[in-house]
Here is the input.
Amino acid sequence: MIADFCPFAVQRPAPAWKQGYSWLPAATRKRGEVKHSAEGYWPGIYSRLDGSDRASWHFTVGYDRLEQHYPVSALCWHGGDVGDDGGVSANAELVGVEHLGLAGQALTETQLELTVALSRWLHETQGWPGYERGREWFEHREVSDSPTSCPSGRIPWAKLKEMLMVDSLADKQLKVIRVLQPDLTAADLDALVARLRYLFLLAGKPWPA
Here is the structure.
């Protein structure tokens, strides 16, 4: 099922005009994501997001929450690339995900959990085949037409994949629920899983494994 809005993200819309291109469709199906370093915190994020410069992105991973600013299908201006050079048109084909903090700062445990939960949700709802670097996962510096160091080594890709590959006891229990409650839709169950993971995060509890 293709979905535009993440059920466990706080919806914080950004200016409608900061998206799209006159020569491209208004919405596109995404094939992957770019994980960025925000190089700042909420005040600066909002200032740039709401400002006049050509910069916009879909999600921001904070220290206590995930925010969504545009529908997943929107063409945001985050990758510095709209041409199909190098095999990908970043602003048309990839979801932009900013992570609060600065170069040299590791992602917090909550940020790791949130960005993993987002990747899992995108994978399931957009129909991506896996979690591979250069196929579903990209860095800004790899796709931008202009030189950039973003995300400045802040994204621990191996750790994220390890977290995603864990088939937890909770996930197995939910598979049983799918059998016992066949009337529940896949969307209902996906939203339930996402919400439960987020509540565990808020409570400071590990997701059962």
